[in-house]
Amino acid sequence: MTDKKLITPRKLQGFWELMPNEEMVFEDILDKIKNVFKTNCFLPLDTPVLEYSDVLLAKSGGDIDKEIYRFTKGDNDICLRYDLTVPLARFVSMNYNILDFPFKRFQIGKVYRGERPQKGRFREFYQCDADITGESLPLTYDAECIKLYEPCFKALGLEVEIEVSNRKILAGYFESLGFGNKINNLMVVVDKVDKLPKVEFIALLKENSLTDAQIDNLFTIITAKGSFEEIKKKVENITDNSTFKAGLEELETVDKRLQAMCMEKESLCYNLSIVRGHNYYTGTIFEAFIKGKRELGAIGGGGRYDNLCGHFIDKNIQGVGMSIGITRLFDILKNENMINLNSSSTSVGIITFDEETLQYGLSLMTNLRENGIRADIFNEEKSFKAKMKEANRKNIPYVIICGEDEVKSNSYTLKNMATSEQVSLTLSKIIDMLIKNNE
Amino acid sequence: MTDKKLITPRKLQGFWELMPNEEMVFEDILDKIKNVFKTNCFLPLDTPVLEYSDVLLAKSGGDIDKEIYRFTKGDNDICLRYDLTVPLARFVSMNYNILDFPFKRFQIGKVYRGERPQKGRFREFYQCDADITGESLPLTYDAECIKLYEPCFKALGLEVEIEVSNRKILAGYFESLGFGNKINNLMVVVDKVDKLPKVEFIALLKENSLTDAQIDNLFTIITAKGSFEEIKKKVENITDNSTFKAGLEELETVDKRLQAMCMEKESLCYNLSIVRGHNYYTGTIFEAFIKGKRELGAIGGGGRYDNLCGHFIDKNIQGVGMSIGITRLFDILKNENMINLNSSSTSVGIITFDEETLQYGLSLMTNLRENGIRADIFNEEKSFKAKMKEANRKNIPYVIICGEDEVKSNSYTLKNMATSEQVSLTLSKIIDMLIKNNE
Questions:
Q1: Quick one: A348-438 is in which CATH superfamily?
Q2: What are residue B284's DSSP bridge partners?
Q3: What is the C-alpha to C-alpha distance for residues B293 and B297, in angstroms, rounded to an integer?
Q4: B20-335: CATH homologous superfamily?
Q5: A331 dihedral zone (left: phi>0; alpha: psi -120 to 50; beta)
Q6: pLDDT value of position A59
Q7: Do A358 and B76 lie within an 8 Å CB cutoff?
Q8: Alpha-carbon distance B290 to A315, whole Å?
Q9: Cβ contacts from A onto B, under 8 A
Q10: Residue A132's closest CA among A319, A322, A323, A324?
Q11: How many CA atoms lie within 13 A of A362 on its CB side?
């Protein structure tokens, strides 16, 4: 071995990899969210990580973005997926004739973006999306996607705060000013309201030909926050533009549906300054925050979009979807000490001393595992003291000692590592106790 | 839209993608296996799909295999992983100083091989591995990996049959004949015993310089099948070679541990003709089959290996692991009609008629979901008859009708779609019934 050249073991920069104690918690988070998606009747989808480049880049007319991982293999021009939405569009388009619409699907999977790695930004990271697609989707589905954050956050022991708007309101206002041809540019400007000093923001609006009066009205709109009634009262008389009116009406219906769905009033806030993704969404838009932690930024968002499959098939498929930034959320929970990274993968460690007690302990281990208890034996040749020390270091809550006496009396000595209490018990008593403890 | 060129939506050939009803079952299988791994105190690991090429190809000295997906991005020479073992070796080597050994990890993830797609062979498919690594691993861990198939298969409603051997037995026999320098070649030949006609197989052995007497003894070894006592009696006097003896002794210890772990005798068969992967394994080797379906081939296998990290660090890390061919297993269960692909993602569908009943139904939906019941509302504007038809087509077992009468009496009409029975119930009764039904 010494004359062999060693390769330094390393991981690609910016690629996410958790240590096992962290991964245990992360998988637990994913499982809880998946369960909520399933209870909400979303179906799982698992598309390939690789796609044909022309399919994945259909939207941009095949233009390559340097963030995208692209290569050829044989005759195939291949990309790694950079989101889960284009694969959804491809899947729905390919299976249009056999899918049952409305099609509610969730997907939690890795996506790839070759951007410069930095804090909180990864080149490989998870996306977690739930979307509803169909040929004609009532606004109830928009409400369903918003409401979905509530049980997802609750399952993680968090409370959510969701801000909701409808893109037609701002678009309609700009239309009413005669700026119908540069709505997307103006949305980009509005998106900067929280990022720029007010003077600079106003200067930018003036550069885009807005008058003082128009800017005043714009501020009335984008500072409107609160219940639907409150924001409606504030903005409804600003213009008669039909797009604007349609946006407000859609928002009113969504609000009514959310109330019927028992959405907590304190979790919901209408905020007409939300822009989100500039030109992708066409109606309802929303962003989700951890309650009381707004400064950490949005943990997720989504909205209504038209024409999901327009690049692939000549059918008009609408969609509305929500997503949770699961990699970011995990990072936040970890940094804010909101998760326990010290829990053990083992509920009970079994200590034996020789060949005879090992046989006794192995049979106990099987028995406990068959009862769903995470039992493990200390297998290595170590002293009793060393094994107890290992149990302590690994935060294993219970230890069962299988010595000569225990074998003779067909019993087991259970030690609570936190309290150091020690009791001699039969197998069935131990199982009862540990199962109760697990619940 | 009509003047735009459409891109034909297609998926890369040989890449696995299930329809949602299949994916539901597949994820359920993965969850069940994960749970067993966790109960057996294995920790989860999730390594990146991409690795540096020199790291991934360290074993082959950087030689590229045309099956491997490899490309460059910026300055990086990158490969898609082709198994989960090299990433494990990389991870253990990188984190050698902070990992707690023995390190028990499981990983279920996609791997990539650019081979020609054919029935049952995929270019992107799942591997499902559980390995134990450490500096000195007692044979109890070998037994643990073998035993692990039993609860995994049981969780899927299957019975397992495992064939076990130890590579040292055949290796020792070849050593005793003076063929110590061509053991790997001879293992490749032995691996063909079931694939070639006996005459051809014997001819091949003769080509490799084995005499008639040596071939006779080889047949005694590779036809030895049964309990450990049976095979030991059959082969123990063939040679005094120390490797051969060590192999038999190791197998005896593994058998003793398996008995202590209450491994079903009928699930276990020693079979000294097993070779598995030619030169990777160094001790215990095993293959798992579905009981009564041996003709479908092995569903998994594994064994003991030395020097996992030898290409990366100057430490001797041993390992023993088991794997389940989960993609293949799913294909088999599907083809043999052993899974139900017709179960609905929805346990109960809610039918409403107008704005008022919709509000009533949405509140019911939230209530049911909060109780863990997969409830969904028929949202689209369709007749009652059309909604009932949809419930039938989607195999939804129950429907709740929320009409004007129900709103007035604050009750709900629950219809069992299989029996057509219809009862009027209060909310709490409905929840009780559906939860009981779910269990």
A1: Anticodon-binding domain (3.40.50.800)
A2: B166
A3: 8
A4: Bira Bifunctional Protein; Domain 2 (3.30.930.10)
A5: alpha
A6: 79
A7: no
A8: 46
A9: 261
A10: A319
A11: 23
Question: Within 13 Å of residue B418, how many CA atoms lie on the same side as its CB?
Answer: 5
Partner residue opposite A379 with nearest CB, options B141, B365, B374: B141
pLDDT at position B3 over 90: no
Residue labelled with tokens 């936040």: A332
Q: What is the pLDDT of residues A9-41, one digit of tens each?
A: 999 999 989 999 999 999 999 999 999 999 999
Element of type H or E holding A116: none
Cα separation values, A363 from A122, A357, A370, Å: 46, 10, 11
Residue B139, pLDDT score: 97
pLDDT digits (tens, 9 = 90+) for A177-224: 999 999 989 999 999 998 899 999 999 999 999 999 999 999 999 999
Q: Cα–Cα–Cα angle for B188, B191, B193, nearest 5°?
A: 125
Nearest to B1 among A310, A372, A377 (CB): A310
φ, ψ dihedrals at A300, nearest 5°: -175, 175
Question: Mapping DSSP to helix (H, G, I), strand (E, B) and coil, where does residue B62 land?
Answer: coil
Cβ neighbour number for residue B392 with a 10 Å cutoff: 12
Q: Cβ distance B140 to B104 under 8 Å? A: no
In this prediction, residue A279 carries a pLDDT of 72
Query: Hey, is the C-beta of B266 within 8 angstroms of any chain A C-beta?
Result: no
Task: Grade residue A439 by pLDDT with cuts at 50, 70 and 90.
Answer: low
Cα(B375)–Cα(B345) distance, rounded to whole angstroms? 9
Q: Which two tokens stand for residue A150?
A: 């509530």
Does residue A401 contact residue A413 with C-beta atoms inside 8 Å? yes
Give the start-to-end residue ranges of the domains of chain A.
20-335, 348-438
| CA atoms of A361 and B102, how far apart (whole Å) | 18
Can you tell me which residue has the tokens 């509140």? B363
Q: How far is B307 from chain A (nearest CA, A)?
A: 10
Query: First CA to last CA across chain A, in angstroms?
Result: 49
| Chain-chain contact of B45 with A23 (C-beta, under 8 angstroms) | yes
> How many Å apart are CA B285 and CA B304, to the nearest integer?
7
